[in-house]
Design brief:
InterPro entries: Hydrogenase_assoc-protein, NADH_UbQ_OxRdtase-like_20kDa, NiFe_Hase_small_N_sf
Distance between the termini: 44 Å
Largest sheet: 5 strands, parallel
Helix content: 25-40%
Number of helices: 6
Number of strands: 7
Number of domains: 1
Protein name: NAD-reducing hydrogenase small subunit
CATH topology: Rossmann fold
CATH superfamily: NADH:ubiquinone oxidoreductase-like, 20kDa subunit
Strand order of the largest sheet: 2-1-3-5-7
GO molecular function, one term: 3 iron, 4 sulfur cluster binding
Structural class: alpha/beta
Bound molecules: iron/sulfur cluster
Order of helices and strands: EHHEEEHEHHEEH
Pfam families: Oxidored_q6
Shape: elongated
Cofactor: [3Fe-4S] cluster
Length: 180
């Protein structure tokens, strides 16, 4: 009987997709994993809804109401949820706006900033509401593991995932624990 494949879902909240690119740097080893894993919701599959999965990988912090919705959807569907990269764990570069009032940020970008030719702050019901600050994912839902780095290396992704294929807890080597 064929072995059940581990189902993995991934998403980028307030991130730059650099962590996803680093994940793809696994290169040909991804093909070796091919018969052990399958992707659920992910930019790699373009599936839009997260259904029950073994592992969820979250890139990026939480900056708007849609990020909160997606993160809760992942928590509800993923047995193990992993915060991937500095933005998910600390808010990262997007959280630099936390030093300023949100209104001040919007006015600087859309009204008063260099090169603004048509000053207006976007306001459309289709746009997700911005939160007052950018939050680390663990401040919104419970997170099971943290994979630091900006971005984490491809080897770090492998060290995180391969033990879980056999139901083991992941152990990151010390040289994969970096915060830059
Ligand atoms: Fe991009 Fe770095 Fe944030 Fe990953 S941690 S989303 S690579 S800025």
């Amino acid at each position: 009987m064929a072995e059940r494949k581990l189902k993995i879902a991934t998403t980028s909240l307030a991130g730059c997709f650099g962590c996803h690119m680093s994940f793809l740097d696994i290169d040909e080893k991804l093909m070796l994993l091919n018969d052990r894993i399958e992707f659920n919701r992910s930019p790699l599959t373009d599936i839009k809804q997260c259904s029950p999965s073994d592992i969820g990988l979250i890139e990026g912090g939480v900056c708007n109401a849609d990020n909160v919705r997606v993160l809760r959807e992942f928590r509800a569907n993923c047995t193990i949820l992993i915060a991937v990269g500095a933005c998910a764990i600390t808010g990262g570069v997007p959280a630099m706006r936390n030093y300023f009032d949100l209104r001040e940020c919007l006015e600087e970008v859309y009204l008063n900033g260099t090169g603004v030719t048509n000053p207006q702050i976007p306001s459309d019901t289709e746009l997700p509401l911005l939160l007052d600050k950018v939050y680390p994912v663990q401040e919104v839902v419970k997170i099971d593991y943290f994979l630091p780095g900006c971005p984490p290396s491809a080897d770090a992704f492998l060290q995180l995932l391969v033990p879980q294929l056999d139901g083991q807890k992941p152990q990151l080597a010390a040289d994969q624990l970096h915060y830059d």
